[in-house]
Amino acid sequence: MSFVLNVVIIGTGGAVRLTGSGLGCPNWPLCAPGSLIPTEELTYHSLIEFGNRTLSGPLLVFALLVFLLSLRIREQRRDLFTISAVVLGLVLLQAVIGGVVVWMHLNANLVSVHYAISLAIVCITAAYLARMYEVAAPRELVVPKSFMILTHVTTVAMAITVIFGVITTGSGPHSGDATIQRDGVDATLMSHIHAWPGYAALALTLVLLVLAAKDKLRPLRWIIALLAVLILQIVLGVYQARNGLPALVVGAHMILATLTTAAMTLVVLRLKRPVAQ
């Protein structure tokens, strides 16, 4: 549930930005002066922004529950306890950064950091789910070393793609509020720079698929999932770049980024398995 909520809040956060609702609630932690919820004087932008804020509550509750449950088994599963503690800490950090973003009137750099941390949380919660279904034991490599290296190179290409994607979005027209304009970075140039490592990641994933299928390697199923999401992600990216960045497509592109990075995380984790398994 924590994984799902983190994906959902990225979607609602994207809706806030793409509908120009970033300052729908001009204050934080209150929505408006003297009111925790939107007032009648505010617009529908306030409802969108407040809805995104409201998800922070369940997100924190589930992160805390997972942490407490992991705390009970920390002697047997220190890995799960550590992961849950990191997730809880990042969720709390996100709440603070979200407030600072509002105070700083949607500073592009802070918004980018806010999104990047959300992606990291999705990857970490995906790792928790994967490790949860494995026994607690030392792990051993179950793929050729060359395959492992190629997988990590693909991960680097994916990370570079995400980083430049965040910068590209920050330089584009969807600033989160109609009164805020982005400048200083050529959005068209950034879109091309963002695309190049994306194509490299696609090519590398295809190579991984061929090698994994040939030798029936453990990560095969997640490589197939990664390839499917990555192809869809590239198609949407090309479409939005050639059609004036329609908000709905940009939002779908942001959400798919979470699934792409989560799939990449699981591919990496499948390179090893518990010795006892």
From TrEMBL:
It comes from the Bacteria. Its main location: membrane. The chain crosses the membrane at residues 55-73, 80-106, 112-130, 142-167, 193-213, 220-239, 245-269. Keywords: Cell membrane, Disulfide bond, Heme biosynthesis, Iron, Membrane, Metal-binding, Oxidoreductase, Transmembrane, Transmembrane helix. It is found in: Membrane. Pathway: Porphyrin-containing compound metabolism. Pfam families: COX15-CtaA (PF02628). The keyword Transit peptide does not apply. It is a multi-pass membrane protein. The keyword Oxidoreductase applies. This is Heme A synthase. It comes from Leucobacter coleopterorum.
